[in-house]
Design brief:
Blueprint (H helix, E strand, L loop, with lengths): L9 E3 L5 H10 L5 E6 L2 H11 L6 E6 L5 H8 L4 E5 L7 H14 L4 E5 L10 H16 L3 E6 L1 E2 L5 H6 L4 E4 L9 E2 L1 H14 L6 E5 L8 H12 L4 E4 L2 H6 L4 H4 L6 H16 L7 H7 L6 H11 L4
Parallel strand pairs: 1-2, 1-4, 2-3, 4-5, 5-6, 6-10, 7-9, 8-11
């Protein structure tokens, strides 16, 4: 089915999250019908303020509880393609994924793009393991799909805090000598927008969405950031037990819902990252973008420009 920018309806879930807020501005110039699904009225109001009336696109912001199958069927009605981001660390994330897939089948969706995670086969990481089941269900569903697997987001680095401090300190929550490969949210958004546009050429593909290579630990990252901003960044590590037992609860510190499941996901993640990182290849990201993905130096300069710290 060829792309029709005038008639196709595009649905984004968790539309006020960090991924979709990077993607929406890239979709607005071409796509005329965007449906943005959120689960709170405050998110709905933020999206309307940020995007409604800013382009010729018709923007529909809908409230939905994705844990309810009827809500999933409702928001998918008439939709051509969907970009599904699951609510992070949600105790029913897998169930939500199943609901979206089953509702997409009912509504004859032409393209299901699923933002998963790098290496969902890592069972020790609960936030990875739950996505493994969603990927399996999507692959077996018969829907035309594209699975995207980003790594640790560069944008989680506290650049605004670092820039504001005379003697900046990076608060490491796990061993800062463990190497990672990182994903830029802007790279992921640009790649996702191209996948929406190119549609059939990305059917039935699973892509690692990595920006940086080779693997790099947070001490190395801080050295690069420090060189760009002209400051030495001190790395301080809080021991695992001290960090997870301090107040407020770890879920609150990350803006997550409080539940035993969310607590367990966060604690397992910190402990896992203390011994093992996440590494992958930027080859697919480079191919989809048609350019070199974002490196740390370029990312920092871009953030400084955004923040007026040239």
């Amino acid at each position: 089915m060829p792309v029709d920018y005038e008639k196709n309806i595009i649905l984004l879930t968790c539309a006020n999250g960090k991924q979709c807020n990077q993607l929406i501005p890239l979709l607005l110039p071409k796509w005329k019908h965007l449906r943005l699904a959120v689960n709170s009225d405050s998110s709905r109001q933020q999206l309307l303020e940020n995007y409604a009336g800013k382009s010729k696109a018709h923007i529909e912001v809908v409230l939905a509880d994705l844990a309810q199958p009827d809500d999933c069927k409702r928001i998918l009605e008439g939709v051509t393609a969907v970009y599904h981001v699951g609510p992070p660390f949600h105790p029913r994330e897998t169930e939500i994924g199943y609901n979206m897939i089953e509702s997409a089948l009912t509504n004859n969706i032409k393209h299901f793009i699923y933002s998963s995670v790098l290496h969902p086969s890592l069972r020790k990481l609960l936030n990875h393991d739950c996505k493994r089941y969603i990927e399996e269900a999507l692959i077996e569903s018969g829907l035309p799909y594209t699975i995207l697997q980003p790594s640790h987001f560069m944008d989680l680095f506290p650049i605004q805090k670092i820039l504001s401090e005379e003697k900046p300190v990076y608060p490491a929550r796990w061993d800062p000598d463990v190497p990672f490969c990182y994903t830029s949210l802007s790279d992921l958004a640009e790649a996702s927008s191209k996948i929406f546009e190119q549609r059939e050429s990305h059917f039935y593909a699973t892509y690692q969405m990595i920006s940086t290579s080779p693997p790099m630990d947070f001490r190395q990252v801080c050295a690069i950031v420090g060189k760009v901003i002209g400051k030495d960044i001190k790395v301080e590590t809080t021991p695992f037990q001290q960090y997870v037992e301090s107040d407020p609860p770890v879920e609150q510190r990350f803006g997550l819902r409080e539940s035993p499941y969310t607590r367990d996901v966060a604690q397992r993640l910190f402990l896992y990252y203390t011994y093992r990182g996440l590494v992958g290849s930027p080859n697919v990201m480079r191919w989809v973008l048609g350019r070199e993905p974002m490196g740390w130096e370029g990312w920092v300069r871009g953030k400084m420009e955004e923040l007026g710290k040239k």
